[in-house]
Structures are given as C-alpha cells and as structure tokens.
C-alpha cells in the first residue's frame, strides 16, 4: 500500500489530507522458534511486506479508526475501559493504552490503515500493526515524553497479553521495530542484547511458501506450549532450590533428565525441543560466519522435525511442503513462526529455485487443491515515518 493511497482513504473518511504516515514490517525468522518466551535466542529480520497507517490527532478524546483491508470502522474513547470488540482495532486500542501507561499522553486521533503482510501466514501481521501504532503514536503524542524503541516493542507484546490473550514472546515486535535492510538480527531474548547480522547468502535465496491454511485449534495451543515449558522449568527449580531457574534458558539436558518422572511425557518432549532449538541457533550463527549454508540448512530441517514431532505445532500441509522441499534438494526448509499453518521458510540454491517453486506449487495444488503463495524474502527496514 503506497503512502498516497492511505492518504486518499484518510481524506475520503475524515475530510482532510493532514496526517502523518507510518509503516512497520512483518518478519521472517531464520531459526530459533518458540525460544523467545523461554529466554533463548532468535534470528529474525524485517521484510518488505508491512502495515501502513495514516494518523492525525483530532483534538478530542475519541479515536476513529478505519481498516481499509477489512472495510471495518470503529470509534472509542481513549480512556474507555473495555475498548472495541473487533480484533484489528483492539491492537490499536491496546497499544495506545500501553503507551499511556509508559508516559505518553495519548489523546484522540483519526486513522486509516492497510497492509500487505499476509494474515495467518506466520509473518507477524499483528506485530506489524502494533509496532506501526506504537511508533506513530509515540511520534505524534510524546511531546518530550517519548519512549524508547524497546518500550514500543514491550507495548506491542503487552497488547497481545492483555488485550488479545496470546502470551507471545518478544521476537515479532522486536523484529518489526528494529529491522534493518539486508540484516538479520540475533537477539538474546533474556538480556535483550542483539546484534545485526548482514545476510547475503551468496548463491542462495530465501523463499517462503505459504500453505494458505490456518488450523485454529480449540483453546489456545500457543499458550499451552508456553505453559508446558514453564512447568518443566518450575519442576527443575523445585529440584535445585539453590539455583535460579527463570526459564528453560537456565536448564541443561541433565536437568530435563532429572525431572523426567515429575513431568508429563508431553511436557518433557516440548522442553526437549526448546533445548535443542537453543543449540541450533548458535550452530547456525557459527555456520553463517563461516558461510557454511549447507550446515544452516541442516539445522532448519532439524527444527522442522522438532516442531512437528516434539512441539507438535505443525500440520499435514506444512509437513507436506517440507517433504517436497527435501525431495527437490532444497538446502533447508522448516515451519516459520508460531505454527498450525502459515509458511515454510526455505533456503534454496539459486540454480534450484525455479524448479523448486514450480514443483512445490504443482504438487501442493494436486494434493490440497490450493495454490500456495510464493514469497521471495527481501530483508527490509523496521518501523519508520514515511516522509
Ligand atoms: C509467534 C509469537 C512469537 C514466537 C513465535 C514462535 O510468532 O508471537 O513470540 O514465540 O510464535 O517462535
């Protein structure tokens, strides 16, 4: 969505072109899945697909918001206790409240927003929306009380926890806010230290294959996974009271072995995946420095297997996409993001790219009668104001 187009919609709805336009991207993650809320490492980067929002203070206490993609409109008072019902507006409402709690004096505003981050694809369209408003509202209302980029990240995450009900980690909001063109970021989710990592794999490309399915299971399987990890960490803490165990980050393979009989087999399987994934991120970092992409790819396949068998966040369609990638000789392939549908991320040799894209498209269509969406990854910039 171009800047001109959101301004046009803004003008149609609110009768003025006076607004500021902000943009925040979705993300990919090379490796390190379900490690963020376990205090581990992640390796994301922002993408070019993003959310764009035109925003202008309106001099009242009312928020008036229009979603171009969903053709939906809502209004609410800034200090309303409950906020709007529709999820897309709850993100906006939640972020405004969270920024207020962090000292930004937010008043009424008008906004129109749209985006091209595919929904339900595991590319973090929600974080893109949260970060866009965190960045934009901070810019418009801070008036000397501006918050840091990390506060924006945390405001987005808190919105998920308190207003949406997903107990997510910080990877998605972090990637959306801090992204940089051509660079992946290795983030330590416990200390919040991170470094940019130029990503230019000579001879290879990253491509997403969107299964275009989302299996909404009953309850909240994402939160269930998180709870499994917390239970195992708590069991280890109980056994070793002299140590401080906050998350699985503080645990070793021996620790898991030691609490095997105190936890369910399912919880142990989940924890096993997380510990393995923690090691894989570090192996991938090392391999990237050496330019050893074959090794990177092997770790990606291992992650897929773990997410599918132990963490159980895959589905038939994603396993099939992974299998086809393997058969095509793709270097690395795995589920990306929270799981239960969405995309696989694939590291493909340039010479194989066309063959892979054609084969996976044909075979997936033959089997599920769905044409998968092929998305070439271009690592882009994080949250910003469009001049
Ligand atoms: C979702 C969450 C993230 C992270 C991933 C899995 O995208 O929002 O915090 O846990 O799943 O790695």
Give a verbal description of the structure.
The protein is α+β, with helices and mostly antiparallel strands and 387 residues long. It has a domain at 3-199 and 380-386: Ribosomal Protein S5, domain 2 (2-Layer Sandwich), CATH 3.30.230. Helix content is 43%, strand content 22%. The chain is built from 11 helices and 13 strands. The protein has helices at residues 3-14, 87-101, 125-141, 149-164, 171-178, 221-239, 253-258, 265-290, 293-309, 316-328, 353-368; strands spanning 20-29, 41-42, 44-57, 62-67, 72-77, 109-115, 183-188, 194-198, 204-214, 332-335, 341-349, 373-376, 384-386. The strands form 3 sheets. A 6-stranded mixed β-sheet has the order 5-4-6-3-1-13, with helices on both faces. A hairpin with a 4-residue loop joins strand 4 and strand 5 (72-77). Helix 2 (87-101) packs across helix 3, helix 3 (125-141) packs across helix 4 and helix 3 crosses helix 5. The protein is globular. The two termini are 15 Å apart. The mean pLDDT is 96.
């Amino acid at each position: 969505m171009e800047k001109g187009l959101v301004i046009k919609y803004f003008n149609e709805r609110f009768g003025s072109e006076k607004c500021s336009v902000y943009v925040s991207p979705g993300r990919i993650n090379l490796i390190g899945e379900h490690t963020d809320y376990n205090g581990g490492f992640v390796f994301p980067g922002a993408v070019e697909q993003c959310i764009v929002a035109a925003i202008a203070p309106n001099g009242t206490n009312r928020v008036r918001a229009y979603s171009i993609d969903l053709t939906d409109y809502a209004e609410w008072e800034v200090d309303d206790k409950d906020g709007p019902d529709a999820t897309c507006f709850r993100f906006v409402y939640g972020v405004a409240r969270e920024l207020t709690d962090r000292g930004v004096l937010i008043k009424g505003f008008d906004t129109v927003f749209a985006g091209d981050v595919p929904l339900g694809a595991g590319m973090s369209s929600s974080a893109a929306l949260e970060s866009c408003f965190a960045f934009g509202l901070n810019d418009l209302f801070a008036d000397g009380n501006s918050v840091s980029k990390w506060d924006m990240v945390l405001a987005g995450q808190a919105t998920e926890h308190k207003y949406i009900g997903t107990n997510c980690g910080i990877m998605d909001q972090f990637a959306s806010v801090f992204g940089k063109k051509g660079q992946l970021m290795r983030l330590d989710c416990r200390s919040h230290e991170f470094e940019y990592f130029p990503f230019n794999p000579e001879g290879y490309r990253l491509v997403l294959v969107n299964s275009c399915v989302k299996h909404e299971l009953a309850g909240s399987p994402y939160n269930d996974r998180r709870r499994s990890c917390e239970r195992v960490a708590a069991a280890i803490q109980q056994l070793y009271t002299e140590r401080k165990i906050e998350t699985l980050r503080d645990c070793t393979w021996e620790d898991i072995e030691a609490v095997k009989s105190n936890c369910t087999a399912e919880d142990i399987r989940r924890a096993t995946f997380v510990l393995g994934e923690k090691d894989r991120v570090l192996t991938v970092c090392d391999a990237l420095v050496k330019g050893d992409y074959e090794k990177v790819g092997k770790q990606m396949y291992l992650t897929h297997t773990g997410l599918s068998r132990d963490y159980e966040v895959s589905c038939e369609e994603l396993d099939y996409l992974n299998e086809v990638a393997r058969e095509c000789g793709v270097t690395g392939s795995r589920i990306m993001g929270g799981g239960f549908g969405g995309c696989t991320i694939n590291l493909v040799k340039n010479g194989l790219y066309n063959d892979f894209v054609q084969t996976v498209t044909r075979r997936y269509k033959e089997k599920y009668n769905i044409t998968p969406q092929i998305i070439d990854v271009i690592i882009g910039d994080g949250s910003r104001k469009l001049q």
